[in-house]
Each structure stands twice: as C-alpha cells, then as structure tokens.
UDP-N-acetylglucosamine 1-carboxyvinyltransferase (Micromonospora acroterricola), 451 residues
Amino acid sequence: MTDDVLVVHGGTPLEGRIRVRGAKNLVSKAMVAALLGDSPSRLFDVPKIRDVEVVRGLLGLHGVKVTDGAEDGELVFDPANVESASTDQINVHAGSSRIPILFCGPLLHRLGHAFIPDLGGCHIGPRPIDFHLQALREFGATVDKRPEGLHLSAPNGLHGTKFALPYPSVGATEQVLLTAVMAEGVTELRNAAVEPEIIDLICILQKMGAIIKVHTDRVIEIQGVPKLHGYTHRPIPDRIEAASWAAAALATRGHVEVLGAQQADMMTFLNIFRSVGGEYEVTDARPPKLGDPGQEGGIRFWHPGGELNAVALETDVHPGFMTDWQQPLVVALTQARGLSIVHETVYEQRLGYTEALNSMGANIQVYRDCLGGTPCRFGRRNFKHSAVIAGPSKLHAADLVIPDLRAGFSHLIAALAAEGTSRVYGVDLINRGYEDFEAKLADLGAHAERP
Ligand SMILES: CC(=O)N[C@H]1[C@@H](OP(=O)(O)OP(=O)(O)OC[C@H]2O[C@@H](n3ccc(=O)[nH]c3=O)[C@H](O)[C@@H]2O)O[C@H](CO)[C@@H](O)[C@@H]1O
Ligand SMILES: C=C(OP(=O)(O)O)C(=O)O
C-alpha cells in the first residue's frame, strides 16, 4: 500500500483536453460476446484498464486467442478453439471484477458447462446475483454453488423463456441477452435495463447474427439462433469517465474538454451540470474531407466563475441520473451555495466515501430516509442512502484511502480542489476504470506525483 500513493498538491484548476475511449461497462461485455461467435471479432477503442485485462485473461484461459490489432486500442478475438479451464486457473481472477458472471451463457453454449469464480467490483452494497441465477435456471441451466465458486451445466441445452426482472439490473439484463441469443426458441425479458451500454451490446449481438427486438416499456424479445459469427465494433465512449472529468473541472474551477464524450448518452448528467451552474459546449464530430482535417467530437466543461447552485437529485436506472456519476459530482456540490440533496436509489451503501470528504472540511450528513421525491427500495431498510451537502465548504488537504473506483476518483478530485498537499492511498484501484488517469492529470496541469 505504501508505494500505491499519489501526492496531490491541490488548489490549481484543471485546464486542458483529454480523450475517453470505449466504455468500461460495454467493452468488457463485448469481449465476452466474442465467445459466442464462430469466427473472429474485432473491437476498437479498448481502453487500457484493469477490467479489460481480467476479461482478456479469462478469455485466454478458455482458448480464445486475443491479439492486439493494427490500430491502437484494437483487439482481435479468435474463438476457434474454445476449451475448458481449470478452476484453479480461473480462480486467479477471483474477486477482481464483476464480469466473470457474464461468462455463464456463452460458456454453457460453447462447452455445456461453466465455472465462475467469486466476483469483485466496487463494495457499494451487497450486490447479490440472484436475478442472474434465477434467469439461468429458467433457461434450463443447473447451478451448483460450491466454496470455490459456481459450477453450471446445461445437460438438456438452453431454451428460451419468459422472465421478468424484479429490478432493471444492468448485469442481469446482459446475462439474459448473452444467454438468449443462442437458446432454442424465443425469450421475453420484462423490466429490462436499457442503459446505452446495453443497447450497444445489443448492436454487437445483432451484428453477430442475433435477432433482438427492443420494445417500449423495458421489454426485450430475443429470437434464439443456432449460430453467431464474429463482429467488428467501435464501442460507445465512456460516459462515466467523461462525467468524472466534467465534475473535476467544476470542483477545481477549471476547464476540461473531453474528446469522445457523447451528448446523447449524457443528457441527464448535462442537465444537472447546468443546474449546478457549470457550463458546457458540445462539439459535433466532422469527418475529414479534402482540404479539411475534420474534427473530433466531444464536450467542453467549465466553471464560469461566481457561485455554484445547490441541487436535489436522485440516482436511478437509465434514463435517470447514473449512480456512477454521483460520487464525483458530490465533490463539486460541496462548493455550491445552499443545501444539495442526493438520494442514492441504486446501491444501498454508496455514500460511505462522504466521511473522507468531511475529513477535508465538507459538510455532508447522511440519512436512512429517502430524501428524494420518490420512496425507494432502501427506505425502510436502515441503509444510509440519502445525503445532504451544505456548501460552500473550503476543502483542506488530508490523507485519504481509496475505498472503490468512483469514490476513489471523487477523493482525487477533492484532493485537487483542496488547499495544500494530500496523500491519496490505494490509487491503483482507479486504473480499474480510468485509462491513464495519471497521464491525463498531468495533461490537465494537475500537480500530482508518486513519492
Ligand atoms: C460492470 C458494470 O457494468 N457495472 C455497472 C453495472 O453494475 P451491475 O450490473 O452489477 O448493476 P445492477 O444494475 O445489476 O445492479 C442494480 C441493483 O440491482 C441489484 N441486483 C442486481 C442483480 C441481482 O441479481 N440482484 C440484485 O438485487 C443490485 O444489488 C443493485 O442494487 O450497472 C450499475 C448500475 O448502472 C453500475 O453502477 C455499474 O457500474
Ligand atoms: C460500480 C462500478 O463498477 P463495477 O460494477 O465494475 O463494480 C462502477 O464502474 O462505478
């Protein structure tokens, strides 16, 4: 831990331009989808982040040859020789990411059995996988929970089913998609999640030969097909990373252009950003033509000077305000005049990081009640899932330990916004979802160094 520390000299506005590549929450699933094809797949703009390395390792163990393509960030997956891996080999990746659970359907289709290690991911609530396992059983899989992990098999193959999710879970929706595309017959999924990353996964599966209809009211219908081929795909950019840098610009009174950021996927964030008092400008991409080098699209975010405004917001499933945007934005809200309210309705325990902000001078109280307009699943269950942020607060430097990915980025922003020198421990965790964040900090003029 002692060498996993960043020394941050705060108080300098972030100024400059950075680029985001493929979304962490899509790229890793696109990689799993490559297992379903009977020919190679090609994925562009793959960021160098930890979750990609984990999935690459797991694919390799299952016989998928993963090679770097000609373009920077291009990966090629050859699934010609899919094979079983030993539980010991697979367990090397235990506890490192949530993506292994999505190997169930593709491995059952390709091998008739699957072994899934303990999952990792951010510690922001209990994060059960009951919807996943219930759905897999409905498809005809048997699930055996053992101390070393989950063993699954499908002795009679997988068959389409009618299934309603108790909550529009992103992962469980992806589980159903990755399983249904090659299950025999039709699957109807109700109360599905419809995040942009899910729609992009559907686009990939459709490119592979799948038949998927997205109806209104969160209903997705999948007609199983006997075989799929490889895909070529450029993924949607990372809207969480883009919003994180936007929040950093606001909290440090800076000006950051995020190349690659896409307005359509960030509308809800942009509305809140503007309500808080931040300014932004969207630049549309223009392809190069003779005599015109063209232009890369993106969004410029900045603090216009003066005071920020307090806001009330609730995190929610798409098209609501994303839970993963919450932690970085709260740092900016500590600088807004008045009382801001944040009601976290997606995860039970995603406000623990506010203690660290309070240790830096913020004034944030957390409550068990639903302080937003709508009562949520956590209201009567004793989880501190609403926050009241009183501002503006002068942040001062502190020694911080990063608890999870987005909280980690929020600690980093707080250290950059604070007066003085902070030591941020456990920063390697940020590499799980933010490509080259230290180089990007340097490009934005941040004063941060490894001791
Ligand atoms: C790798 C990835 O894409 N991670 C994202 C994904 O996580 P992930 O797919 O894990 O999140 P889910 O949408 O599944 O979780 C939402 C809620 O459903 C609950 N639930 C989920 C599954 C289940 O079987 N049982 C159950 O109760 C969870 O505990 C949580 O309270 O979507 C989240 C919500 O946008 C994001 O914050 C994560 O960044
Ligand atoms: C919660 C997150 O990720 P994961 O599901 O991978 O833990 C996140 O990206 O903020």
Q: What stands out?
A: The pocket of phosphoenolpyruvate (ligand 2) is lined by residues 98, 121-122, 324, 405-406, 433 (CB under 6 Å). Residues 24-233 form a domain with the UDP-n-acetylglucosamine1-carboxyvinyl-transferase; Chain fold (CATH 3.65.10.10). The chain has two domains: 5-20+237-449, 24-233.
